[in-house]
User: What shape does this take?
Amino acid sequence: MTRVEKRILIVDDDRDFVEATQAFLEANGFTVLKAHNGKDGVKLAKMERPDLILMDIMMDERTEGFFTIQEMRRQEELKGVPIFVISSLYTEMPDFDNPPDRAWLAHDEFLAKPVDMVQLVEKIRQRIGQPA
Amino acid sequence: MGEAAAPETVVVIDDDYAMRLSCCKILSKMGFGVEAFEDGTRGLEGVGRLKPGLIVVDLKMPGISGMEVISRVHEIDPQITIVVITGYATIDTAVEAMKCGAYDFLPKPFSPDELRLIVNRGLERRRLSLESQRCEVERAMLKRRFVTFVSHQLRTPLVAIHQYLDVLKHLGDTAEVAAKREEWIDRCLKRTDELQSLIADWLTLARVEGGTLTKERIKVDLKQLLPGILKTYEAMAAGEGVSLHAALSEAPLCVSGDWNCLTVLFDNLITNGIKYNRPGGKVTVSGWPAEGEVVVTVGDTGVGIPEQYRPFLFDEFFRIKDEGAKKTTGTGLGLHISKKIVAEMAGSLDFESQPGTGSTFRVRVPAWHEADVAKTGSSE
Assistant: This one.
């Protein structure tokens, strides 16, 4: 039997958030890759082409996640990889000095932090299926 | 403020040659750049080009009326102050002009003093209104930024705690998670500590800003205060492999301030020196009297402050995000609070930094004078 791995990349600067989320995803059979800033996230994503990406917004820079998503969207090898934004900034952010290009809205899901783990796994399964 | 003292430009629009001439003479003697125009069309063209702070306009002119000039000038820039000149029997028109947005009017004939007075007053009002507009914009921006940061900084540890608890609740009895339980609970406790210090720092900041923390002015000898603080942080320093040193002058280092407030100040500087250091490094606190002031420096042997971060070092929530500094914890408020405390004491706080060698923060505050006793009513 060939094992079908489902790999999820978490990009988030809070190591505790990553650790907890990783544990839950792994318990549900997913394989987890992690990066703690946007730059490493893009690098790892291009190298590993994960099945799905979970993206934080406010990391070192206040809008780092948005620009990281834009950058990922430009990568040929990441075409079609769903990106879920998980952020505690769940308003429309009227307070950003330089609103990023609206292209960031191309993210596939927006989940508010703290995120309901069961619901998160459910949404991931709907999108990419359950690892066999 | 540090604005270039370019002379304010004043534009005069009047069809009467003698009037233009005398206004120009008086106003240029006051140090303004003055240009005069003989009708509204030319005047408006001049206003668009010169961007004056104030215009003096005759209400009764051939061609475009003074009244129309007023509204067109305010279309160009609503902050331009307009003074109207009116001939006799046109006071009603002058009142009308002021309803349209003119600042004041000068009935003909007027004396040079009257012109000077009204122009100065008009420009002063303009300056104040521009200033308050600028402050308003800045305040609104800071407030929005503050709210974003505060909510993000409060939520981040809360989210981490929530996430751990959520996973423990769902998977607590699996072997993998059970093995992590201890560690995760410790992490949760650490994150609650983070929240506590965040709140503590904000409260300190609010008290500094409200002036209550620095209100008390008693005689404090830093030679008594500083060794105590150093002792408090000995264990923390040892944990980082950093040694603490004091080099205080023989003479007493008395300043006029509040004990708690000064403790917060040097706590911040010394803990920064420990945190942004290297194993085997040193933190040296030196103090000496200097011409009516007391100088205290806190020097470390850390990596130094990279050039690009220096201008932001005292900003609220600013933290250096280099790889090396990432492991350190903090609220990003310590230096901001310290700067405010020193400013409240009429002193100064600055720093020097050598990449790879370390940084030295220098506090200068006015020394204690016996006369201060009378001011504060406190006695020692």
User: Anything to note?
Assistant: Chain B touches chain A at residues 141, 144-145, 147-148, 151-152, 155-156, 158-164, 166-167, 170-171, 174, 176-177, 180, 184, 187, 191, 321 (CB under 8 Å). The two ends of chain B are 40 Å apart (CA to CA). The mean pLDDT of chain B is 85.
